[in-house]
Amino acid sequence: MMSTNRALQTLFALAVVAATATPAAAQTIYPITRAEILAGAKFDFKVEFPGSVPAADIKITINGRDPADVFGKAATVDGNEEGQGHTAYWIRDVSIEQPGAYEVSATAGGKSQAVRWDVFGTPPRRARNVILFVGDGLSVAHRTAARILSKGIAEGRYGGELAIDDMPFMALVSTSGMDSLVTDSANSMSAYTTGHKSCVNAMGVYCARNKNGLAHPKVETITELVKRRNPGMGIGVVTNTEIEDATPAGMVAHVRRRSDYDEIVRMFFEAKPDVMMGGGTGFFLPKADKAGKRKDEENYLEKFKAAGYKFVANATEMKAAGSDKATAQLLGLFHPGNLDGALDRLVLKKGSVAAFPDQPDLADQTRAAIDILSRKPDGFVLMVESGLIDKYSHVLDWERAVYDTIMLDNAVAAAKAFAAGRDDTLIVVVADHTHPVSIIGTYDDSGRASACATNSASTIRPNSRTILRPTLPATRAPSTCHGVSRSCSRASPTTAHQASPTSAGPSSRLRRRTSRQWPTKSTARRRRCACRATCRSRSRRECIRPTMSYSLRWVPVPSSSAAASTTRGSSA
Question: Rounded to the nearest 10 degrees, how much is the dihedral formed by the CA atoms of 269, 271, 274, 275?
């Protein structure tokens, strides 16, 4: 046992050393080794040397050539960058036009470091429009649960496919970062929008030694690339979280800390995407404003208006602006923070729905954005994020997370409807990372599977104007599944939560509240005789044990929030 413990301690010590080791003792080169760089894309070239190194002692080559010759710019050398005691060699805002393999070598003080870059080109453009959907924190289990809830399942077969399921190609993507196996939304979104992996909390930069969060080596975002190379293309950023949050910010931002919301709003204004929709109004308003969250007195809401943006604050205004052909640029801010999720808005009417009753859903935001961007002369790039999947999964609120997965799927269906009949629109659906969400079930060995299926709402097939609503009805006829009477295994209607057929269902708070309303032991004892008739094959304990069971049924909802039916339109 002692030798085993000592071996484990040794392995742990080695793991700690490996995890904390840094290249501080040698040169550090940015971009990092094995970086994949788009030919012509902009980036900052930086080499950090430990200690103070005279410029004359520094030798750096790129494929044997001086970097100044390769980039056409002279380097600057700071012998004590930010007073931290290291030397920084910089050439900012450079690019490499010729695809190929590049080896970068840096030597000083008898120490050398080398990295390899892969500079790649692209074939001629085929897609006029690109729509990128990001399910923040989306896992396979989220997707499976969304399919079960929205399409139903009976006798092992789903009642239909999600719009996501109908995509012609499918793959798994690794989103690990430079410093973390499981990364965050900032770094993973930055990898999608720049092509460069970085570290946790960073967007549009490599994580160097700089203290200033805005001074790290930058890499060009897809928004900047499109605006620079093809001004006729439109850019759209849509989310149901704060627009300054990591995923939407990754379209424009160059920050080491994703929490620098003031700076991210400034960067949005400098980049000027044609369509911006989400929450987070407070960071557009000055400190003096009672609703303002900024640390300065800049009023970016007025700045966007002065720059020609149409501002909308609710779903009604958004739809009107989207259908107005005069709308060329749109800023939609629908909530001071994150928008409310689909379950709260459509069913429970909880959260901040009472204060903000006219919030748009993600599918309607997508349609409005496409309406505006499709009028651009040379196509568009649109990013749509369902960020609430992640927000709810962090707090283990699976019901709300799955409802917003369904809403993401509705948005994908809206995009596919636009792409149907066209051969110029690429639709991509990705996750940025996942959560440890699992679907854990059992099986029916009682031989009564068909009886159970007939009493299950999963046999009901939705139409294109319905959405699944979980309810806890006040009464229900007995149905014997797994040998237990469902009406018997619950509290009586007089002691259980008195929910109407249209009342809210599966929130964790409801479960906790209802669990305190079960009958006492004496009450259950008086009901035991009624239970025995249908629970004869079960133990007395299981017969009187109260269990919660939700029924799932389809109820009509307004067409604007309808669960879209899956169509096999082209998504090329």
Answer: -60
